Amino acid sequence: MGKLLVKEKEVVVPGEDLAEGMDLLPGEGCYRDENKIVAARLGLVKVGGRLIKLIPLSGKYLPKKNDVIIGKITEITLMGWRVDTNSAYPAMLSLRDATSEYIAKGANLSQYYAIGDYIVAKITNVTSQNLVDLTTKGPGLHKLKGGRIISVQPTKVPRIIGKAGSMVNMIKKATNSKIIVGQNGLVWIQAEPKMELIAVEAIRMIEKYAHVEGLTDKVKEFLDKAIKGGR
Amino acid sequence: MSYKRKDRALDEPRAIEAKVGVIKRADGSAMFKIGKTTAYAAVYGPRNIYPRFLADPTKGILRASYAMMPFAGVGERVRPGPNRRSREIALVTEQALLPVLDLSEFPNSVIDVIVELPQTDAGTRCAGICAAAMALADAGLTMKDLVAAVAVGCIDGTPIVDLSKEEEDYEGEVADIPIAVLPRSGKISLLQLDGEIDKENLMKAIEMGKKVCRKIYQIQKAALKKKYEVTK
């Protein structure tokens, strides 16, 4: 029977032994060295049955198919738009994936998306060379107008969204704001100026205490206090 | 004939200190201090690579840079900018770190490791490698292991560990051997030799160095864990 050498939810560093025994399996962020399972990155240990994996605590965004991201238009080309994805790899938004409208030949593309615009887009394809294709056709995908964009650590995004969007919905409701969380670590917030600031602070708080238990209650407490104090 | 130290044992390194996350804007960063030698390392990336022709379509590349600050402490001003020595050390730093890194996830991109030393008292490339390894782990990259490094050597036929500048400049037979060790496997990813040493003493010195590297690894590990410890 395999033996765990570290506690669950412990922070481990690359090269640290996690478990012993051939019946346990190395998951994401781990590898096997003889009969041991070893950490291959810095992360938080998570055990699910026989599988041991690591939840990353830091790192840049790596484009993944079907992720909804917030991107910035950096270039207009003959075939469409080039978009900065807040990662090492820029993405392409081709003409036919950009809009269902008819775009005439030689039309001025900046009337759809101009350089510097932020868009909510979905990744349709990522090649082995990490060439990324985007689409803005689909529910909830559009150009962003107004509001503000903050950047958070991409590894904390699942925590900001919460289970089935519980965390972000709580902030939205409390501050009466519109929030879009991109998987790439960019977050768009629009609300009354005061509420916008409170929402930003709440998100920063989640980012800082991402792996503390009972975070939802803590954020709730903060929101109640901040909104009452602000009025 | 045999060399003696006043303040510490022959196989004992100077006081070591390490801290992770010292440069907030970087993707990963660390400070490593051994005696009076202080190294800071910052990691940026994976990010877009320029100039474009350097890109490797099969895997990401690691690009290290090394610099001593002008006031770093050799007595006279260190001229800023790359020179032959810093180019060499950047190269061996890259090669010492590459065996643990898995960059296949990041084709056509670069990971920049920038090492700066505000104060030096020998053993700078080793301190730089120790700091860089921590910074790479802090940046969340896939790594098989960390890398620990220390300079070993031999003075008048006596193997010693972690030479200070004073010892490097000792009048007599001195060998200076920086080594980097992957603590899990005990494999060596950097081995340079300056001076003369016989085989027996070399093996002895490397064994002593490996022991110290295991100690350094514990310090690196503790520093990394400290940054990410859950703040209640």
Overview of the molecule:
The complex is a heterodimer of chains A (231) and B (232). By secondary structure, chain A is α+β, with helices and mostly antiparallel strands. Chain A has helices spanning 95-98, 157-161, 166-175, 193-208, 215-230; strands at 3-4, 11-12, 17-20, 25-26, 30-33, 36-39, 43-48, 51-56, 68-76, 80-84, 91-94, 118-126, 132-135, 148-151, 178-181, 186-190. In chain A, a hairpin with a 2-residue loop joins β5 and β6. With 232 residues, chain B is an alpha+beta fold. Helices cover 27% and strands 31% of the residues of chain B. Chain B has helices spanning 84-97, 124-138, 165-168, 199-228; strands spanning 16-20, 28-34, 37-48, 61-68, 109-119, 148-155, 158-161, 174-182, 187-191, 194-195. The mean pLDDT of chain B is 94. Chain A binds chain B through residues 11, 13-16, 29, 31, 33, 38, 40-42, 56-60, 62, 87-90, 128-130, 155, 208-209, 211-212, and chain B through 27-28, 45-48, 57, 60, 100, 102, 105-109, 137-146, 182-184, 220-221, 224-225, 228-232.
Structural class of chain B: alpha+beta
Largest sheet of chain B: 5 strands, mixed
The portion of residues assigned to helices of chain A is 10-25%
Average pLDDT figure of chain A = 93
Unreliable residue stretches of chain A: none
Q: How large is the radius of gyration of chain B?
A: 18 Å
Number of strands of chain B: 10
Going across the major beta sheet of chain B, what is the strand order? Answer: 1-2-3-5-4
Query: What portion of the residues of chain A fall into strands of 2 or more residues?
Result: 25-35%
Any key phrases for this structure?
heterodimer, A: 231 residues, alpha+beta, OB fold (Dihydrolipoamide Acetyltransferase, E2P), Ribosomal Protein S8, Chain: A, domain 1, 3 domains, 5-stranded mixed barrel, 4-stranded antiparallel beta sheet, 16 strands, 22% helix, B: alpha+beta, Ribosomal Protein S5, domain 2, 5-stranded antiparallel beta sheet, 10 strands
